[in-house]
Design goal:
Structural class of chain A: alpha+beta
CATH architecture of chain A: 3-Layer(aba) Sandwich
Oligomer: homodimer
Helix content of chain A: 40-55%
Mean pLDDT of chain A: 94
Largest interface: A-B, 26 and 26 residues
Number of helices of chain A: 4
Number of strands of chain A: 4
Strand order of the largest sheet of chain A: 2-1-4-3
Number of domains of chain A: 1
Radius of gyration of chain A: 14 Å
Chain lengths: ~120, ~120
């Protein structure tokens, strides 16, 4: 089924409860962005191309607790959206294997918003 | 000429003088990371593949002034390294067209360090 042209974005969710510094947060966001980009590209090449040609909008939001983070993962698995969870090597600031961030999409904004619209901007 | 296996990384340079918030910085870092990844992949597919298979190390550093930022751009152009400068659409926090960040590589750590080794971590 053809879809009408509509907004496409990538959303990055950062765990605030880990108290990571700004540089660490930025690096985790980059991991999430690139991993999710590669995941989306496998399945939705046309959507990813449209997103890139329109500037590649990225929105960075936060969760404040591990419970919120786990709840997001559960909802994302159920949603069918392309996403990736970042597991940090833990060389600095967090323990090895700590999940620090999630990248979602690029995918249609209206579909991502169904899952993430209640999260605040970082 | 074959090169021995060696460390590969991506470096993201953020302009601190713009006083961007953490979420804005993270988004600019993601733009830089993805743009530079795509640039490097065009020319150095093997290097990029090695980097991904080893965890995709990303290091986020800072410059404190526009002069330092412009100096980096000049040195990067002369270096031949794969890199991309992020120009923000300027919808929030900065004026449209403001250059906010630079992504370098993934490329050999030893070559990137020749240009960026004096910069501090963000």
């Amino acid at each position: 089924m053809a879809r009408e042209k509509q907004d496409i974005k990538q959303v990055i969710i950062i765990r605030k409860d880990l108290k990571m510094g700004t540089g660490k947060i930025a690096a985790q966001a980059c991991h999430a962005s690139l991993m999710s980009y590669m995941e989306a590209e496998k399945k939705y090449k046309d959507i990813v191309e449209s997103w890139l040609s329109e500037g590649g909008t990225k929105v960075v939001v936060k969760v404040n607790t591990i419970e919120e983070f786990d709840d997001m993962k559960k909802k994302l698995r159920a949603s069918g959206l392309p996403f990736k969870v970042v597991k940090d090597a833990g060389q600095t600031q967090v323990l090895p294997g700590t999940e620090t961030a999630i990248g979602i999409g690029p995918y249609y904004t209206s579909d991502i918003d169904k899952v993430t619209s209640k999260l605040s901007l970082l």
